[in-house]
Design a protein that fits this description.
about 200 residues; alpha+beta; Nuclear Transport Factor 2, Chain: A; 7 helices; about 25% strand; globular; NTF2-like_dom_sf
């Protein structure tokens, strides 16, 4: 049996479920002159969303509530028990560690609001959407909107197995010091934020 922090399971989930969206093809403009230098545009336009099923919409709704600080055990249940969360700051390879991230938002942010989303791609096993999230840190009191591309890989039961949040056009390499720091954050933040052990 691997040790809890050996990350063998996370590596397996990564190999089997990690989404690799093509940001340029999913978010770039057909008119190249309207593209940024990176060729991507993560600003959401809700009216351009592709259709998704009510079950998938419920998943997106739960995820956006978590981004907005719900810190809800019910919302956390959209994740499989064995799941990965991957963003510029954190790499978490169990649902409990993922909860450690979400339960931290109300502690460090006075507000966190999902301003808009746009579903850009959806299949039975993957949802990809643009998101604009406005964060207001407690210490600074200054609001900052962040546009990102969120990819959710789903299992056969409709649970999220891999949640990737990309803030720029580059996918994650899972190598070097950056990955080490992300993993340490994912491992240790739950000790501070203390999500329910039942997760």
């Amino acid at each position: 049996m691997p040790e809890p922090n050996s990350h063998v399971l996370g590596e397996k989930l990564q190999q089997e479920h990690e989404p690799h969206p093509n940001p340029q093809s999913l978010t770039g403009h057909t008119d190249p002159s309207k593209n940024s230098s990176t060729g991507v545009d993560y600003e959401p336009t809700p009216k351009n969303s592709v259709s998704i099923s009510p079950e998938q919409q419920a998943i997106v709704d739960a995820i956006t509530r978590l981004y907005s600080g719900s810190a809800s055990e019910a919302d956390m249940r959209v994740y499989a028990e064995e799941a990965v969360y991957d963003d510029p700051w954190s790499y978490c390879d169990t649902r409990y560690k993922i909860a450690g991230q979400w339960y931290g938002i109300p502690k460090v942010m006075s507000t966190s609001r999902t301003l808009a989303t746009e579903i850009v791609s959806a299949t039975a096993t993957e949802i990809v959407y643009k998101q604009r999230q406005e964060y207001t840190p407690r210490l600074l009191g200054i609001s900052k909107p962040v546009d990102s591309l969120v990819s959710l890989s789903l299992d056969g039961e409709g649970k999220v197995k891999y949640h990737k949040d990309m803030w720029n056009e580059k996918d994650y390499s899972h190598e070097g010091l950056g990955k080490v720091m992300k993993t340490l954050n994912g491992d240790h933040l739950p000790k501070i934020t203390r999500p329910p052990k039942s997760l």
